[in-house]
Design a protein that fits this description.
Radius of gyration: 18 Å
Strand content: 35-45%
Number of strands: 10
Order of helices and strands: EEEEHEEEEEE
Strand order of the largest sheet: 1-10-7-5-6
Number of helices: 1
Distance between the termini: 28 Å
Largest sheet: 5 strands, mixed
Amino acid sequence: MSVKVIEKNAGEKIPFTESGYKLNFDDMLAIKCDKYQKDWPVHKDICMDADGDLTMGTGDGLFYVAEVDIPAREYEQQEESDQEGEGKAPVAKKLDMSQVTVTLWGLENPVAADDEKEE
């Protein structure tokens, strides 16, 4: 399943590929989405510095190129019970990559990522 892609603004976007649970941005930075998934939604900012290097997170001198939103982990209840008749603990479902959203920002007019998100 492919991730959902949103184009935040006009212009050329950073290239990225999807392979299994991994998103690879311009062969410079990779995110294994299943490793970042938690019991709550996770948001990761992908930014570029003045030298064109990619980093995760925001800060002075960085510009947005992408955002990755990973949904909260879902669980399914097991039907069997243990020897004492109590239900077994729920089991985490595998991440559905079609529920992951990648937001791409234009590279021509970079938006500063100085810890204050601009919309």
